[in-house]
Design goal:
With 609 residues, the chain is α/β, with parallel strands linked by helices. It has 20 helices and 10 strands. The strands form 2 sheets. It has a 6-stranded mixed sheet with strand order 6-7-8-3-9-10, sandwiched between helices. A hairpin with a 2-residue loop joins β9 and β10. α3 crosses α5, α5 crosses α7 and α16 packs parallel to α17. The two termini are 55 Å apart.
Length: 609
């Protein structure tokens, strides 16, 4: 059962720390470097006091030299420590990205097919790349702020307390007013942003109504009325946006005025003490320098909450994927090489089951599980036996054919009934063992942005030789175009095989199935129109790949259907007709009418070409 409880911040922190813990040496190096860098801040402002009071006021050249040497040394330490600290922290962030990306991708490959089907590939890729980078960026920012900036603040405050603790407390009190002002302004801006968003929703509603119902608007002469409605909503949106911009533009001046006022009060009090000889000029300058150096780290600490908010959101997205339940694999039987007999016994599958799969719920009910009364059957009880080496073409209702083909490799599971391979229930077989006995040539012709050789030998790169790859390409009638490629088998085909034609892509997929040499083949024929030459090569390749294999064809072309041992016409009610191509044509039933329709469509397409 999937845990849907939202993790707390503390839980997210602890999980991220576990990813950093193996690199404790880099963590220690980064911490030491940042501590050293932070320590230089109060030392630098402390040197201001002897420089003014001793070296300049006392005209002590030797002391001035020592102070200047100390400043140079501190900046050298600051530079070296800052470089090492920044490198260590960013290295840790990069390792965090690497580890999370690899683990997420590895986890993604263990998830059920329904998970990938129900999520856009772009969002999954973004989660693996952007979210992990966001988490790492937040880690580096937080580590820098929590260690270096906090230590700088503590060091400077400690020095200020040493110089004049009442004045330091006054400074601290006035400094706390700044975050309060920022919080009040931010809260107001957030409320105004929500109001502005609502006005934009109302405006979009008016625009959508008018555009979607433009026929009614035109027929009833509602143009002016719609323009007035739109203007009213647009003016309201403009009014709220103007108020928000006014408040946003006031935020910086208000903060600057408040900061200047606080600084003026503190400088005035400090100057009064200096005039009364209660504080030396060096102490005064050192105190003011420390106060000014506090501004930047205090700002970064104040902004830490916003940084954490974005980072924890990305971390939650990352861990939500990592916490997904992997594809269940309860099978224990290993089949080295199957004979290829497939038997379907009262196999049922439902539309609402498919929707639940897309929603990421349980892969399928147990056999005999009850469906809701409103369930619509895609496969209402198929009973069928396919003999080893037999070629069976599935035609008709596309929903049924696709489901039936996906049931064999257990990309989906039946709601009831069972499927047997050589007498073994598919659920009793280990998934890896089952799928090792199945090859797929899909209408999507899935190719990778790699070489032709790598695509043909995909999954068998460590075992396939150039000779076996060449033999598979030749059997798939692919060598005639591979020879013309600039680098032959080593030619890069581009994303999704963009550099190849549809027929060429299909032949490479067939060569991949040939080199796998599995006893069972699922052939989901390409629906795209091929030219005469490509169609000839593709058909010859298909004739080669189906030899001596149990072949389940989701048929789209009559040339393949005619060569099938049996044709099964599927409809919403299940198997409508079963027989050879000639037998079904002779009956003059639903299959014959379907073939006639396909022939007419083919003639029309040929005329258009």
């Amino acid at each position: 059962m999937q845990n849907t409880q939202i993790p707390t911040r503390r839980q997210l922190y602890l999980r991220l720390i576990r990813y950093i813990a193996p690199y404790w040496d880099a963590v220690i190096l980064g911490l030491i470097s940042m501590i050293a860098m932070a320590a230089t801040a109060p030392m630098l402002v402390a040197l201001v006091q002897p420089m003014l009071d001793g070296a300049i006021a006392g005209k002590n050249l030797e002391l001035m030299q020592l102070v200047l040497l100390g400043i140079i040394s501190l900046f050298a330490v600051r530079g070296v420590a800052g470089h090492i600290g920044a490198y260590a922290v960013n290295w840790l962030g990069s390792k965090l990205v690497l580890d999370l990306q690899v683990e997420m991708f590895a986890k993604l490959l263990t998830l059920p097919a329904a998970y990938c089907a129900s999520h856009e590939s772009g969002s999954l890729v973004s989660g693996i790349t952007s979210d992990t980078e966001q988490v790492a960026r937040v880690f580096t920012d937080v580590m820098t702020v929590m260690v270096k900036d906090l230590l700088v603040i503590l060091g400077l405050l400690g020095w200020m307390l040493y110089l004049d603790w009442p004045l330091a407390l006054l400074t601290l009190l006035m400094a706390t007013a700044m975050p309060l002002i920022m919080r009040l302004i931010t809260a107001r801006l957030q409320k105004m942003a929500m109001e502005t968003q609502q006005t934009m929703i109302n405006l979009n509603q008016v625009l959508g109504d008018a555009i979607e119902n433009y026929q009614v608007v035109k027929l009833h002469g509602g143009e002016q009325y719609e323009i007035q409605r739109m203007r009213k909503q647009a003016e309201e949106a403009h009014r709220f946006a103007k108020r928000r911009m006014a408040m946003a533009s006031l935020r910086v001046p208000l903060i600057q005025i408040a900061a200047a006022g606080a600084l003026a009060v503190i400088v005035y009090v400090t100057a009064q003490q200096a005039f009364a000889d209660e504080m030396t000029a060096g102490s005064f300058a050192s105190f003011v320098a420390a106060m000014l150096m506090l501004i930047s780290p205090v700002k970064r600490v104040a902004g830490l909450k916003e940084i954490l908010r974005h980072g924890l959101g990305a971390a939650e997205s990352v861990f939500s994927l990592l916490d997904q339940e992997p594809e269940p694999d309860t099978g224990t039987i290993i089949v080295e090489r199957a004979r290829g007999e497939l038997r379907f016994e009262q196999v049922r599958f439902y539309h609402d089951q498919e929707k639940s799969l897309e929603a990421g719920s349980k892969a399928s009910p147990e056999p005999g599980g009850q469906q809701g009364t409103g369930a619509c059957s895609t496969l209402p009880g198929i009973t069928l036996t396919i003999q080893p080496g037999e070629m069976v073409a599935l035609v008709g209702f596309s929903g049924s054919t696709a489901v039936l083909a996906n049931l064999v490799p257990r990309f989906i599971n039946p709601a009831s009934g069972k499927i047997l391979l050589d007498g073994h229930d598919l659920r009793s077989l280990e998934l890896a063992s089952l799928r090792a006995n199945i090859a797929l040539v899909s209408s999507k012709t899935t190719l990778f942005n790699d070489t032709i050789a790598a695509n043909i030998a995909y999954g068998a790169l460590g075992r396939a030789t150039e000779a076996t790859i060449t033999a598979a390409a030749q059997a798939a009638h692919a060598t005639e175009f591979i020879r013309k490629m600039p680098q032959g088998l080593q030619t890069l085909i581009g994303e999704h095989g963009v550099n190849l034609t549809g027929g060429q892509r299909l032949r490479i997929a067939i060569a991949r199935a040939l080199i796998k040499n599995s006893p069972i083949l699922i052939l989901d024929e390409a629906a795209e129109t091929l030219d005469i030459e490509s169609g000839h090569h593709v058909q010859a390749a298909l004739d080669a790949v189906v030899q001596e294999r149990t072949t389940l064809v989701i048929a789209d072309r009559l040339a393949t259907v005619e060569k099938a041992d049996r044709v099964i016409l599927l409809g919403k009610g299940g198997a409508v007709e079963i027989g050879s191509h000639r037998e079904l044509l002779a009956r003059g039933g639903a299959y014959a009418k379907l073939v006639q329709t396909l022939c007419v469509q083919k003639d029309v397409a040929a005329r258009q070409l």
